[in-house]
Write a structure and sequence with these properties.
globular; mainly alpha; MetI-like fold; 296 residues
């Protein structure tokens, strides 16, 4: 930066960075620090009730007294995040490959794929709850034609896979757009040369296109992993965290704002969720960055 901007120009650059840094400080650092402090107390959020510093007591409660619930919540979180990250990128990559081509109506299909990304979580949740309602929904009617039935979001077997499906459906548009943008940067000369050399379409994609869209893959995998590890809203609307969908986000929400309303314990769960997210995302980014360097 110093080699490009000098004197007052450099001051302008730093000045333009200040608003973004303030927003990050206000909505990122401060809430995280506040959660950490609250996790060390017995704060209930009730006016007039004294707050006491309890140290690591909330964490001890989670990892000793509530260990089965905590373990199940971590497992649900990792299964949810893993399923969303893998399948959202596989489906998004396939759709991007098809929609990056030129054919009649491609603009319409691109819009159709991206449409769910602009819908609110509540609308998405209520829509799929109605579609997959076990009492008279289209999904139940369809299964009835084959002489079977399902509780859908009320099933211990199907609730988590269906929530994963809805999460993918809601975010697939953004993932697809990022991959399309990456594919549009691949030099056409490379693809034409591969065609002249007799490479099949699949071989051309695997050997040329896929390595060259490594940055898009890094962005999509990182965002999908980070987002799904922190998700709770769509799960809250669809299942309220029951039937093997009690992820750390739902566990935190239910502990802090429902039942006993123990904000201190809920904040401790939130910190654990934050640490897990940081560990997974940093490890994933490290691997993907090395992969990009190896392919460059």
């Amino acid at each position: 930066m110093n080699s490009v901007f000098k004197g007052r120009q450099l001051l302008w650059v730093y000045g333009l960075m200040i608003p973004g840094l303030l927003v990050f400080l206000l909505f990122g650092i401060v809430p995280t620090a506040a959660s950490l402090v609250i996790s060390l107390t017995d704060y209930l959020g009730i006016p007039g009730v004294p707050v006491h510093f309890v140290g690591l007591a909330n964490y001890v409660t989670l990892f000793i007294n509530n260990l089965p619930s905590m373990k199940q919540s971590v497992e649900d979180t990792l299964m949810f995040a893993g399923g969303v990250t893998v399948f959202q990128n596989l489906i998004g990559l396939g759709l991007a490959y098809v929609l990056s081509k030129r054919f009649p109506g491609v603009g319409f299909f691109r819009t159709l794929v991206f449409l769910p990304a602009v819908l609110g979580v509540t609308i998405i949740g209520l829509t799929w709850s109605l579609l997959l309602s076990p009492s008279g929904g289209p999904g139940a009617s369809l299964l009835g034609l084959f002489g079977t039935s399902s509780a859908f979001f009320g099933s211990n077997t199907w609730a988590l896979p269906l929530v994963i499906f809805v999460q993918i459906w809601a975010n697939l548009g953004f993932t697809t757009v990022v991959y399309i943008a990456g594919m549009n940067t691949v030099p056409r000369d490379f693809l034409e040369a591969a065609k002249i050399d007799g490479l099949t379409e699949w071989a051309s994609f695997w050997r040329i296109t896929f390595p060259l869209i490594a940055p898009a893959l890094t962005v999509n995998l990182t965002l999908a992993a980070a987002g799904s590890l922190r998700t709770y809203d769509i799960i809250y609307v669809l299942t309220d965290g029951v039937h093997n969908t009690n992820t750390l986000g739902m566990y935190m929400f239910n502990t802090a704002f429902q039942g006993s309303g123990n904000l201190g314990l809920g904040a401790a769960i939130g910190i654990i969720q934050f640490v897990l997210t940081v560990i997974v995302v940093l490890a994933l980014q490290r691997y993907l960055t090395r992969r990009e360097e190896a392919m460059s």
